[in-house]
């Protein structure tokens, strides 16, 4: 028998287990069955899905697009886009999996030092 805990898309951690055939002395077949079951359980990554490899600049652009769809003022959207461009210089290559609180804080502090407190607030 092979067993593990798996966190599903709804955020709940569940125990998933698979059993191998009777002659599976070391559980290799059960482990293979478990890995296959976990792969089938995981939803396929779509183009709009956020993964650990998604760049933060992509998330910022998506957020600004949603604000625009929600009907925010054109000047607000323009301000955010200018801020996003400046923020991209500080964290342009950082991916979601690499985005630690310390790294984000350092980027916001550098925005404050180079562009002022107002720009840092917009970047936040």
* SSE sequence, one letter per element: EEHHHHH
In terms of structural class, how would the helical and strand content be classed? mainly alpha
Q: Could you tell me the number of beta strands?
A: 2
Shape: elongated
Kindly state the percentage of residues in helix. Answer: 40-55%
Strand content bin: 5-15%
Please state the average pLDDT score.
87
Radius of gyration: 22 Å
Domain module count: 2
Spatial strand sequence of the major β-sheet:
1-2
Tell me what the structure shows.
- The protein is mostly helical and 124 residues long.
- The chain has helices spanning 28-41, 56-69, 74-91, 101-115, 117-123; strands at 2-7, 13-18.
- A hairpin with a 5-residue loop joins strand 1 (2-7) and strand 2.
- The protein is elongated and about 70 Å long.
- The relative contact order is 0.10.
